[in-house]
Description:
Two copies of one chain form a homodimer. In chain A, 34% of the residues lie in helices and 27% in strands. Chain A is of the alpha/beta class and 360 residues long. Chain A folds into two domains: 149 residues, NAD(P)-binding Rossmann-like Domain (Rossmann fold, 3-Layer(aba) Sandwich), CATH 3.40.50; 174 residues, Dihydrodipicolinate Reductase, domain 2 (2-Layer Sandwich). The model of chain A has no long low-confidence stretch (mean pLDDT 97). Chains A and B meet through helix 1, strand 7, strand 10, strand 11 and strand 12 of A and helix 1, strand 7, strand 10, strand 11 and strand 12 of B.
Amino acid sequence: MAETVIHFGIIGCAEIARKVSRAINLAPNAHPSAVASRSVEKAAAFAKANNFPPDAKIYGSYESLLDDPDIDAVYVPLPTSLHVKWAPLVAQKKKHILLEKPVGLNVGEFDKILDACEANGVQIMDGTMWMHNPRTDKMREFLADKERFGELRTIHSIFTFAGGEDFLKNDIRVKPDLDGLGALGDTGWYSIRAILWATDYELPKTVVALRGPVLNEAGVILACGASLHWEDGKVAILHCSFLTHLTMFVTAIGTKGTLHVDDFVIPFNEKEAPYTTSSKSWFNELVTGWEPLPSQNMVFVDLPQEACMVREFARLVGNIKVNGAKPDQTWPTRSRKTQLILDAVKTSIERGFEPVEIAN
Amino acid sequence: MAETVIHFGIIGCAEIARKVSRAINLAPNAHPSAVASRSVEKAAAFAKANNFPPDAKIYGSYESLLDDPDIDAVYVPLPTSLHVKWAPLVAQKKKHILLEKPVGLNVGEFDKILDACEANGVQIMDGTMWMHNPRTDKMREFLADKERFGELRTIHSIFTFAGGEDFLKNDIRVKPDLDGLGALGDTGWYSIRAILWATDYELPKTVVALRGPVLNEAGVILACGASLHWEDGKVAILHCSFLTHLTMFVTAIGTKGTLHVDDFVIPFNEKEAPYTTSSKSWFNELVTGWEPLPSQNMVFVDLPQEACMVREFARLVGNIKVNGAKPDQTWPTRSRKTQLILDAVKTSIERGFEPVEIAN
């Protein structure tokens, strides 16, 4: 049976929408059918530059795209502050939502979006691409292996990049009225997600921001860190920044093994995704070397991770459209947990680095 | 001119003394001349098992070794709690001291040792072997390179290993009366040193322990973490543990580059020491890959790092013995700073994770 092809519309011509347009083109069950901008010219130029097919529709307003009955799903790359307005409107038009991260300025906003999705029976998924890289499942297998990895005890995740002068002055991610969460909402989102992923989405009991976060004049976070603490003693540490050189890693340490990945958000190369594992390593007799050495693993990636994301989202949408399935709850639950931790880090900073309890 | 050969004695037959005995044998300017244990039989067996030459002297008490006029320098691998007693006795006998880490149970103890060294004009150096690996200087060159690395902003360092049931019950490193600092004094020492090394030994302004340290029934630290904060905004995070799989890394991030090393304390292989650098990396145009990729670097190591350590210590001792030089202050200053931070982490834990200011 041929797979149902889902017709996508995009509202807003953000930079990130270029990459997702390509992904919609690449995913076998997705079709780029429309793009909307606040100007028709901008939308037309975007469609042309991003290889939309000749029959793709060009809209000069988001509302007109949402009224198009041929569109099944809408990709929303708008600034975070606009999510709480536009995502519910998309849902009310019975269109499924692929929503950029962070999903809202706080979990309260995201709950409004979730309510709208539930009321209208539409699927929602956030745009965390690396979750869909085939490497991610391979790494998960290692973490779940009690023999090779044991019990998870510690996770460290960092994602930083040096934004540069222009970025720090003009990018929407440093503007309080657009993406007011700054580095925490951008790179921090990925590290928080990585930590939750490693724990199989078990929420921590307590979140404590590290001292010394860097905020810009408008109060937007440019760099910060936090430690997360679970009831069973697991500890995670995250650090995010717009102020230091491009670095991203996850190190997850269990009682018997260690996982390390240096390019978890954006792989060095989209066709090959590396990661390192070690298991029951110890020192040699005179403590002058290791036995066994860590293993370098490589996952070959046929379809870029963002196209895997579109394919998975379109599969869920197709299942609703054709089979009358209920919207999947796995992905929105993960989005909500990520936002919950993000909120807690921000609250802890605001409260002078006091621990913030996570209500489960 | 042939290099002066320094005659070493060892007091105590700890496991680590086996490795250092080999290093004394390998270093061109060092000679294993005597070993002392509380039993002559144990000392004799140690000398035999560790390839001491036939003329090496065997002593049934530490005092008798210290009275031997042929011994220039003494390696002290005794449990930490005994350092403050024995190291000053070694100094009073005008013998130079290679002292295992941590150098004391607190900086006050180490200051007593330093006073004794100064009063007697003897050299002291701690046993942090990785400092002497040729890789360490290569990595330092990268960190000092303003063009490739920029300004240091963040350092993360972890050193953990899974001690196992027997270790957690019987090892001296979990006994309050022997090595009362536990994981902080053992693996934590190395991470603290790595952080100080990365900052070129600039002391932080504030140290804050992370919540959730694990202590055994006797109150010895089995796992803990801390963040360190400098006046200029630099931040470092460390984590040490006896409870999770063998993992050790340093990631130092500057404004333009990143350094990462996965085996900083004990290289995977004593003849080759790898490290990764990246400089001015950014994403490609569509943010589907990195340009340039990080570089894998390898330093070939002729002499094992612990033998490099002995060679450097013996060189300093030789310079005092032959040329009447003053004892070097660089190494003891580094030891003291490391102990100072270690003390601050412990104090912060004891004070309920309050920040501890570092007096400079």
